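Customer escalation, tier 2.

The customer says the design service returned an amino acid string that "doesn't look like it belongs to this structure." They asked us to rerun it and document both sides in this ticket. The original structure tokens are below, unchanged.
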């Protein structure tokens, strides 16, 4: 399938797709809203297919890359769903390394997030990407099925699965004990929540377009935060000024970056919302932040 850009679509259609992805409307409502853009032989369903992920585009680091080792692991989560599975990736030929927990979007552990974990391993970190859909059989290989499953999760238990993942990763014998957390969309919000929960046990956080905590909760954060936002994602980005103010009041080192003309999901290289320049700049900032606070 031809790779398309956000500029190939009306912004109103992209906003509709964002509402669909985040559960503010169902498939039928999206198709009804998209109908007016179905011109020139296109159908509303065809537009949806163009906007949905093509995970073949996500492979920047092949699973068999000789510079890294990957394995599927299952870890205990006694306060969550009992256990959670995920992908562990680390550089070859190293002793102890800093660790990074990777939190997926509201679709489970898809190929894009797995590739992000491998990208971190190439950069010198041990990365663990857990799959919140573990209790429902794991990511099903289809985003619409994944969305339906995601809605069935008990988010209190799911959050405890992420806490268990962070604790397990940080405590591994091949970990330096320095824990970073990055996440995207739903996962960006989880990064912020983990920063509140873990306090000084978390050494750095990089939330991509993540919902911000309340000012009271933000005051509990100790981890340096480098937040990445899309300019056109006003629903999420609008919360940055208050978060910025709360982090400043709490004395937490932090940065916030808003990428001009970008949509929510601009780092995800499997959909037309991907913005190459912004994604590369945000990723470099991510690596710089993690190296700064995890290597010390």
């Amino acid at each position: 399938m031809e790779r398309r850009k956000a500029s190939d679509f009306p912004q109103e259609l992209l906003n509709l797709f964002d509402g669909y992805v985040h559960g503010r409307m169902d498939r039928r409502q999206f198709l009804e809203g998209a109908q007016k853009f179905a011109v020139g032989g296109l159908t509303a369903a065809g537009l949806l297919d163009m906007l949905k992920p093509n995970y073949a585009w996500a492979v920047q680091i092949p699973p068999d890359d000789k510079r890294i080792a990957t394995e599927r692991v299952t870890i205990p989560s006694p306060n969550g769903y009992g256990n959670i599975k995920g992908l562990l990736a680390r550089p070859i030929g190293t002793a102890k390394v800093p660790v990074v927990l990777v939190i997926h979007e509201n679709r489970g552990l898809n190929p894009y997030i797995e590739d992000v974990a491998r990208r971190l391993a190439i950069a010198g970190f041990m990365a663990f990407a857990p799959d919140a859909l573990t209790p429902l059989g794991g990511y099903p290989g289809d985003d619409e099925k994944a969305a339906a499953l995601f809605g069935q999760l008990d988010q209190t238990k799911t959050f405890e699965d992420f806490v268990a993942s962070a604790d397990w990763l940080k405590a591994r014998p091949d970990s330096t004990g320095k824990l970073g957390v990055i996440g995207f969309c739903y996962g960006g919000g989880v990064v912020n929540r983990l920063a509140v929960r873990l306090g000084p046990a978390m050494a750095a956080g990089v939330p991509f377009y993540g919902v911000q905590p309340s000012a009271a909760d933000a005051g509990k954060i100790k981890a340096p935060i480098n937040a990445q936002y899309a300019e056109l994602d006003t629903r999420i980005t609008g919360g940055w000024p208050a978060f910025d103010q709360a982090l400043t009041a709490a004395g937490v080192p932090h940065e916030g970056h808003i990428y001009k003309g970008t949509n929510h999901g601009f780092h995800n290289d499997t959909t037309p919302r991907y913005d190459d320049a912004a994604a590369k700049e945000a990723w470099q900032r991510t690596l710089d932040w993690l190296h700064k606070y995890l290597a010390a």
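Tier 2 assessment: The sequence is consistent with the input. The chain has a mean pLDDT of 94. The longest helix spans residues 276-294. Sent an explanation to the customer and offered a walkthrough call.
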